[in-house]
Amino acid sequence: MSIKKQFLKSKPVCKVSFKLQKEQVMHASRVNVVGDFNNWNENSDELKQLKDGSFSHTVELETGREYQFRYVADGSNWFNDDEADRFVSSGHGDARNGVLSL
Fold first, then answer.
1. How far apart are CA 40 and CA 55, in angstroms?
2. What percent of the chain has pLDDT above 70?
3. What angle do CA 50, 53, 54 make, to 5 degrees?
4. Among 26, 47, 63, 91, which residue has the least CB neighbours within 10 Å?
5. Domains in the chain, start-ordered, CATH in brackets?
6. What per-residue confidence (pLDDT) applies to 8?
7. DSSP 39-86
């Protein structure tokens, strides 16, 4: 798993790139990154599958904020990214959300 942040000088935006290796997605055919930046919509921000089997997606997020997020594979398998800046309780049992600090 990897998260890369590219802060833009021209506007208060950060391009956040998410990348998952095929072994990390439990052989899923579809993976989405969901969070408070897209109202936890499981159908938005789908990662594109690359030729090597990995998945990648980039979003532009406003800087000066924190965003909670998780991944969902094939619409049902939720998991976190180990490279999140920190983790907080999701409010659903013992599940935790990753946090991006921008």
1. 19
2. 100
3. 70
4. 91
5. 2-101 (2.60.40.10)
6. 95
7. TT-TTSSBPEEPTTS-EEEEEEEESS-EEEEEEEETTTEEE--TTSSE
